[in-house]
């Protein structure tokens, strides 16, 4: 689960891929080879909008030299952000669409919650495809449709904008959302929705450092 593109990895191989368009093309080809479901389901995130109660919390990045290892500096207080909801419009094909409502829980993972809010407000996920859909396991998204955003967030110097790790408080059960990771302190933009109870056997995501920060509260069965 830590190879190149598609799920827990940071999805782009920074050592080999330097050109944005070439990198995204290679990534798409790799996902297509691995996941036949991508070709048949063709899930498309056609819009991602949300109403927030407070401004985004300042984040601590893994490559930020000014941050210390203390719990206080590496993680914003969960009280600094209220729970908020994100509405995801999913289009399966020109005639079929649906809406998923996600509730983001800063008390579960304040860093991840603040990062997700930052990306939604930026429009990072608008018109972005689900890059991996494995029935009963995960549906993953997190590569922008705008090459300029990918260049800024994913294809910059290795480790850029990566969040420091934070403790897991909830299990990766069905309907929860977690950031993908390729190792310690590597969470960036990719997120997956757990389509099954993946915390324990046979996938054991809880033991691999995947930290849920949100949950689907409506629309999961409809899409």
SS-based class: alpha+beta
According to DSSP, the number of beta strands is 8
Strands side by side in the biggest sheet = 1-2-3-8-6-7-5-4
Q: Which ranges are low-confidence, i.e. pLDDT below 50, for 5 or more consecutive residues?
A: 1-18, 30-47, 49-61, 63-75
Percent helix range: 10-25%
C-alpha Rg, in Å?
16 Å
End-to-end gap:
25 Å
3D shape: globular
Mean pLDDT: 73
Q: Number of DSSP helices?
A: 5
Walk me through what this model shows.
With 223 residues, the protein is α+β, with helices and mostly antiparallel strands. It has 5 helices and 8 strands; from the N terminus they run ααβαββαββαβββ. 41% of the residues are buried.
């Amino acid at each position: 689960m830590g190879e190149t593109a598609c799920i827990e990895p940071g999805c782009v191989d920074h050592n080999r891929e330097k050109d944005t368009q070439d990198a995204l093309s290679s990534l798409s080809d790799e996902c297509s080879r691995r996941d036949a479901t991508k070709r048949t389901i063709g899930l498309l995130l056609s819009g991602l909008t949300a109403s927030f109660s407070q401004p985004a919390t300042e984040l601590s990045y893994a490559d930020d030299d000014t941050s210390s290892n203390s719990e206080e500096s590496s993680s914003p207080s969960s009280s600094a952000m209220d729970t908020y909801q994100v509405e995801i419009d999913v289009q399966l094909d020109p005639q079929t669409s649906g809406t998923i409502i996600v509730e983001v829980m800063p008390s579960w993972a304040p860093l991840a919650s603040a990062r997700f809010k930052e990306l939604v407000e930026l429009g990072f996920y608008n018109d972005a495809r689900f890059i991996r859909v494995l029935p009963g396991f995960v549906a993953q998204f997190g590569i922008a449709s705008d090459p300029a955003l990918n260049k800024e967030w994913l294809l910059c110097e290795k480790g850029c904008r990566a969040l420091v790790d934070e403790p897991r408080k909830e299990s990766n059960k069905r309907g929860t959302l977690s950031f993908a990771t390729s190792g310690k302190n590597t969470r960036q933009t990719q997120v997956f929705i757990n389509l099954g109870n993946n915390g324990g056997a046979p996938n054991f995501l809880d033991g691999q450092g995947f930290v849920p920060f949100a949950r689907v509260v409506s629309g999961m069965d409809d899409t």
